[in-house]
Design a protein that fits this description.
Radius of gyration: 17 Å
Number of helices: 11
Order of helices and strands: EHEHHEHEHEHHEHEHEHH
Number of strands: 8
Largest sheet: 8 strands, parallel, barrel
Helix content: 40-55%
Shape: globular
Strand content: 15-25%
Length: about 240
C-alpha cells in the first residue's frame, strides 16, 4: 500500500518506553504524520521536554500531554513555563481553578499554545466514576465540564468520541465553532480496545464533531506503523475538515 498524504487531524501518541524508541518511530512514520502527542512517560525522562522541542523544530505539531492538575498558582506557573518553551497543545484537567490558572499562565507567556481541558478520561466507565464518588455518568460530567471550559476560556477539550457530538453542539451554541475537540479512544475497525472504555472508529469520531484524533497503540504497537497510520489517514479521507 502506498502511503496517502498526511492528515493534520491525525495525532500519533508516542506511548513508547524510551526517547530512542520514540525517535525511531518518528523516523519510520516520516512525512505521513505531522502531529505527535508526548505523554508523561517520555516528558518525565531526562531530555523528554527537549525531545518535544526537537520535534517542533523539525516542523511537527506537538501536543504535550501533561494533564496539569494542582492549585491554580502552580498550574499558572507550569502552563506559562510550557508555553514559553514552545508547545502547540497542552492539557490540563477540566476543573475551573485549574483551567483559569492555565489560561492566565499561557496568556502571560504570550504564545500560541492552545489549552485543552481533559473532561473525563477515556479509560473511565460510568461504574468507575461512581466508584470514585462522582454523582454523574460520563456523558453528564463531560457536558458540565465542557460548559465550565467554555466559561474559563480554554481552547478546547479532550473527550471521548462518544461525547464529541454533544460537545460540538454546546460549543456552537456558545458561539465557539472554533472550539477544539480532541478525541483519544479512537480505534480502527477490529482493533483491540486496550485500556480504553469509550471508543469509536476514526471516521465516526470526526463525523461526530471531533477536530483531532489521537491514536497511539493501533499505530506504534504494530509491526508496520507506517501502514497502520496510512490506513487510518485513508479511512478519514473525504470527511470534511
Amino acid at each position: 500500500m502506498t502511503p496517502v498524504l498526511s492528515d493534520p487531524r491525525l495525532i500519533v501518541g508516542l506511548d513508547l518506553p524510551s526517547l530512542d524508541a520514540a525517535r525511531a518511530m518518528v523516523e519510520r512514520l516520516g512525512a505521513t504524520i505531522t502531529a505527535y502527542k508526548i505523554g508523561l512517560t517520555l516528558l518525565a525522562r531526562p531530555g523528554g521536554v527537549a525531545f518535544a522541542h526537537e520535534l517542533r523544530t523539525a516542523g511537527k505539531m506537538v501536543f504535550q500531554d501533561w494533564k496539569l492538575h494542582d492549585i491554580g498558582a502552580q498550574v499558572e506557573g507550569a502552563a506559562r513555563a510550557v508555553a514559553e518553551g514552545g508547545c502547540d497543545l497542552l492539557t490540563v484537567h477540566a476543573e475551573p481553578q485549574v483551567m483559569k490558572g492555565a489560561v492566565k499562565g499561557r496568556d502571560a507567556a504570550g504564545s500560541g499554545t492552545k489549552l485543552l481541558a481533559v473532561t473525563v478520561m477515556t479509560s473511565l466507565s460510568d461504574a468507575d466514576l461512581a466508584e470514585i464518588g462522582y454523582g454523574f455518568d460520563a456523558a453528564a460530567l463531560v457536558e458540565r465540564r465542557v460548559r465550565q471550559a467554555l466559561d474559563c476560556g480554554v481552547d478546547g477539550v479532550v473527550s471521548s468520541p462518544l461525547e464529541a457530538a454533544r460537545v460540538r453542539e454546546i460549543a456552537v451554541a456558545a458561539g465557539r465553532p472554533d472550539f477544539l475537540i480532541v478525541t483519544p479512544g479512537v480505534r480502527p475497525e477490529g482493533a483491540d480496545r486496550g485500556d480504553q472504555q469509550r471508543v469509536a472508529t476514526p471516521r465516526a469520531a470526526l463525523e461526530a464533531g471531533a477536530t483531532h484524533l489521537v491514536v497511539a497503540r493501533p499505530v506504534v504497537g504494530t509491526d508496520n506503523p507506517l501502514l497502520a497510520a496510512s490506513s487510518i489517514a485513508e479511512s478519514i479521507n473525504g470527511v470534511a475538515l
